Amino acid sequence: MEPFRIHILGCGSALPTLKHYPTSQIIELRGKAFMIDCGEGAQIQFRRSRIHFGKINAIFISHLHGDHCFGLLGLLSTFGMLGRTSSLKVYAPKEYESLFKQQLDFFMTGMEYKIEFIPVDTKVSEIIYEDKSLTVETIPLQHRVPCCGFLFREKATLPHIRRDMIDYYEIPVSQINNIKLGKDWITSDGKVIDNSQLVTPAETPRSYAYCSDTKYMPELYKKIQDVTVLYHESTYASESEDRAKLYYHSTAKQAALVAKAANVGKLLLGHYSARYNCEAVLLNEAKAVFPHSFLTQEGDVVEI
């Protein structure tokens, strides 16, 4: 199975601390890499991840709060100084387009690679990126500014043809792909070999939903049903639920309620308020509702 990994570069919220960096992640899938959000210090954490800067295919910005995008221009500048020549797409809320282009004109003159801004409508759910191995779909969220999450879905692969069956029935190479597509095999004496005997099933496609920042959305589960891994902001504990509601954030318990309703495989917690020196209270609260809940920390690599 090809690697599908989440690298946690930062899992803190807006107020900087000595413990956590602002929000940023890198997704690795089938030899490609994508960045989600880019808070301050993201490129330092990027170096610590030991992922080559040149592997980034696209950057996705969920919303225009500084802890999710203040590191973007610095990272793009570093790409240029390192000699990047391949083009890069930046997906971000459409409200950012004018300012982003002004920033590029002011700070990024002379760079030898093209940066293409792709405006995102945060109010609709739609596929904004697609290649031969995955799609990326927006997840409308409810925050104080236009905001969306991102759903990474691996595309289904073909079944695997059994090597022993190829040898036993002397199946030519020219017919292997037809069998993967579901064809039976007919031997030289006319015997039909059912396709199910010739192949083993393909791996189940994996998926990752990234939801930050948002107030509690009881109906959110419908957009992320059965995803393999869910990252959902968990800024506060339940004792601060009124504060979460005021600032359009979620508690750890609310994140777990979404995960449970969506029947996800695993819940990752993050975007912790600076008030918590220890996030165990958030983890315990989430686990009481959804046992497969986990805290994220800088440097974590989550295998999907």
TrEMBL record:
Positions that bind Zn(2+) 2: 67-68, 213, 271
Q: Which HAMAP family match?
A: RNase_Z_BN (MF_01818)
Q: Subunit structure, briefly?
A: Homodimer.
Keywords associated with the record: Endonuclease, Hydrolase, Metal-binding, Nuclease, tRNA processing, Zinc
- A Pfam family cross-referenced in the UniProt record is Anti-Pycsar_Apyc1
Question: Which gene codes for it?
Answer: rnz
Keyword Transferase tagged: no
The protein depicted here goes by the name Ribonuclease Z
The answer, when asked if tRNA processing is one of the entry's keywords, is yes
Molecular function terms from GO: 3'-tRNA processing endoribonuclease activity; zinc ion binding
- Source species, please? Segatella hominis
- Where do the annotations place Zn(2+) 1 binding? 63, 65, 143, 213
SUPFAM superfamilies recorded: Metallo-hydrolase/oxidoreductase
Similarity remark: Belongs to the RNase Z family.
This enzyme's EC code(s):
3.1.26.11
